[in-house]
Amino acid sequence: MNISPSQTQKYMFSEFATQQKSNWYNKVIKELKGGGFDEKLLWKVPEGVFEPLYTCTETENLAYLADFQKSNTWRNCQYIKVLDEKSANKEALEALNNGTDEILFDLCQNVTSNLEILLQDILLPYCAISWQISQNPESFLDSYFGYAVQKNYSLETLTGGLQLFNNQDFKIENLILKSKQAPNFTILSLTSSKTDLSDFVADVLAQANFWIENLANSGIEKSQIIQKIQFKITLENRFFLEIARLKSLRILFVELAEFHLEKNIESVNIFAQTTFDLSQNDPNWNLLSNNNQAMAGILGGCQSLCVMPHDAEKAVFSSRIARNVSNILKEESYFDKVYDPTAGAYYIDKLTDSLAESAWEKFKNLI
User: Fold this and answer.
1) Which residue of 3, 232, 287, 350 has the fewest C-beta atoms within 10 A of its own C-beta?
2) Is the pTM value of this prediction over 0.85?
C-alpha cells in the first residue's frame, strides 16, 4: 500500500509540529558559528552538488521511484580461480554446503578444464554457475551444455552465465542461439571502465542498446537478447552513490527494454562484486570495506553479490568470511525481507533521480 507524505504526516506524526527546512538551516548556521555551510556540509561530486538534508516536499515529483523494486533476493556468489580442477571442485562444494548459491569459476588460466572433475557432485539445477573465460566461448558452451545433458539436467534449469573479457571478440549471436534452451543463462556481461557514475551507466546502456539493435538485425528476437544481458558492477566505497548507481541503472534499462519490446520486463540482471582500495594494504580495512559495499549492492537491487576474500594470505579463512558477509545480511539482518529498503529515503531518491537524469542525457548523446 502506498502512503502519501500527507497521509504519513496525518497518521504517524500528528502529535508533532511541522517544521520548516529553514528552521533546521538556521539552527545549523548557528552551530557552525555563522558560516561555512557550503564548504562543510554540501557534498560535491561529479554527479552534482547535494545538500545534507532533503524533505518530502523536495521529492514529491519523484513518485516514479516508488514501488519500482518488486523483490529483494540475491544470489550469494563465491569467486574461485581454477588452477586445478580437483582443488576448485573441493572449494566449490565447501562453499555450496555453507550458504553459497552461485559459483563464479575463473577459467582464464585453465581454459581446457575437465568439467567431469570440476563439477563433480555439483547439482546444477540447484545452484547458479557462472564462468569467466577469455577464449573459445562457443566450444566451452558446447562442452558445458553437453555435460548438463549427459547428467540428465534440463538446460532450462541452468542459471548463471558467461563473463567474457571482450564481447566484441566473439560471435555473440552464435552464443545466444546456442543458449536458447537455457533461458536463464546469460551471455552478454556488460561493464565499463568509466569512473564517473553517470558516465558508467550511460556507457553500459549504450552497449546494451548496440547489442539489442545489432543482434535483432541478425534475426534474434529482442526479448531473447534482453534476457541474455547481465550488467557487471565493481562496487567501491561510496555507499549512497553505489545504491543510486544500481537503482538508476535498473530504472533506465527498464525504460530502454520497454522501448524495444513495448512491454514491461520483470527484472534487470546485475552482478555486483566488491573491490579493494589498493592504497589501503590492510586486511581489516578490506573486511569493513566488503561489508559496506555488500550492503550498497543489496540495497541497490543486485541479483548476484560476489564478495571477494579480504586477505590473500589467509585464503580459506577469507573465503569463509566473504560468503558469510552475504549470509549474515540475509539470515540475520533480514535484508531480503523488504522489497526496497531505501524506498522513500529522500536523500537516496534525490541521488538516484539526479544520477538517472544525467546518465540518460549522456546515453542519448552516445547513440
Assistant:
1) 3
2) yes
